[in-house]
């Protein structure tokens, strides 16, 4: 069920639920968050069942349960189907049909649109497929309010634009794995230089989107501090990746150190990107959950 990925999904979903302007009964809220976790895990299980062939080729994934034979793909599919259905039905009962519908669509999007279609067919797989990972705060918001607002869409946009620099940083130093598996990730299909430039572009778009909560009043002083301080470091790391040789193949022994240094810059960006997104949503959670929200004067009208 990819619990490490699921943890960030659950956290952003919780932040969306807590930041919503409607208080939800604690038990119903807990069940809604559980549904998001189950749905995300079900999608992850389906992904590993379907990708068992390419997972077996890549060093990063070859020890997963399906390629090692510990779990047959048929059982993984059955498990994913049961968990998907359970999460959607339980969300409908605990929250509302809007949240349940969004959860169902996010599972479908990740399993069918991303896993079965985009991942193996286009270097834009992460860009378009990133929508699946951007749904949790919208689902959490809808669970509390029964609707989707501009603030919820801003939270969606933040994660959507965060996904390319985050995922392509990983792809830069794992490009050999993706090439061996025939997956057209951006470094494989367009080259490392193009990927580093696009990381820089999407970093700018992502950091611009993180200002959205300040403009609407959803984010306050705590969020502003996290956005400015954390965003500056994110930008610095992205520039360092752009100027590095991350993803390049060494053509001579004396170039090896530069390549390793470049790959380190990509690793640093990948690791920090997770921390930065968590920091932003933790700020929203702290402000709205602990009653510490104070909007910046003049920005929200």
Automatic annotation (TrEMBL):
Keywords: Cell membrane, Heme biosynthesis, Membrane, Transferase, Transmembrane, Transmembrane helix. It is found in: Cell membrane. The chain crosses the membrane at residues 29-50, 71-91, 97-117, 199-215, 221-243, 269-286. One of its GO terms (biological process) is heme O biosynthetic process. The keyword Cell membrane applies. It is a multi-pass membrane protein. Its EC number is 2.5.1.141. GO terms for molecular function: protoheme IX farnesyltransferase activity. One of its GO terms (cellular component) is plasma membrane. It catalyses: heme b + (2E,6E)-farnesyl diphosphate + H2O = Fe(II)-heme o + diphosphate. Pathway: Porphyrin-containing compound metabolism; heme O biosynthesis; heme O from protoheme: step 1/1. PROSITE patterns: UBIA. InterPro entries: Protohaem_IX_farnesylTrfase, UbiA_prenyltransferase, UbiA_prenylTrfase_CS, UbiA_sf. Converts heme B (protoheme IX) to heme O by substitution of the vinyl group on carbon 2 of heme B porphyrin ring with a hydroxyethyl farnesyl side group. Belongs to the UbiA prenyltransferase family. Protoheme IX farnesyltransferase subfamily. Carbon 2 of the heme B porphyrin ring is defined according to the Fischer nomenclature. PANTHER family: 4-HYDROXYBENZOATE SOLANESYLTRANSFERASE, PROTOHEME IX FARNESYLTRANSFERASE, MITOCHONDRIAL. This is Protoheme IX farnesyltransferase. It comes from Alkalicaulis satelles.
């Amino acid at each position: 069920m990819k619990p490490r990925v699921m943890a960030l999904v659950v956290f952003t979903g919780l932040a969306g639920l807590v930041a919503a302007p409607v208080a939800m009964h604690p038990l119903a809220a807990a069940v809604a968050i559980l549904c998001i976790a189950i749905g995300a895990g079900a999608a992850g299980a389906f992904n590993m069942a379907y990708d068992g062939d390419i997972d077996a080729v890549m060093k990063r994934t070859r020890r997963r349960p399906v390629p090692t034979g510990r779990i047959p793909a048929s059982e993984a599919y059955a498990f994913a189907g049961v968990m998907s259905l359970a999460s959607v039905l339980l969300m409908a009962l605990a929250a509302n049909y809007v949240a349940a519908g969004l959860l169902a669509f996010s599972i479908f999007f990740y399993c069918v649109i991303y896993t079965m279609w985009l991942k193996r067919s286009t270097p834009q797989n992460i860009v378009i497929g990133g929508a699946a990972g951007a749904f949790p705060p919208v689902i959490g918001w809808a669970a509390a309010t029964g609707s989707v607002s501009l603030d919820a869409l801003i939270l969606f946009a933040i994660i959507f634009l965060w996904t390319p620099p985050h995922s392509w940083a990983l792809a830069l130093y794992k490009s050999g794995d993706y090439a061996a598996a025939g997956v057209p990730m951006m470094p494989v299909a367009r080259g490392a230089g193009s990927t580093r430039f696009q990381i820089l572009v999407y970093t700018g778009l992502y950091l611009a989107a993180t200002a959205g909560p300040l403009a609407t009043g959803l984010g306050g002083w705590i969020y502003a501090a996290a956005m400015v301080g954390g965003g500056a470091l994110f930008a610095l790391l992205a520039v360092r990746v752009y100027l590095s040789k991350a993803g390049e193949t060494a053509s001579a022994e004396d170039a090896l150190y530069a390549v390793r240094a470049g790959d380190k810059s990509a690793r640093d960006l990948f690791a920090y990107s997770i921390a930065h997104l968590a920091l932003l949503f933790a700020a929203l959670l702290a402000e709205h959950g602990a009653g510490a929200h104070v909007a910046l004067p003049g920005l929200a009208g």
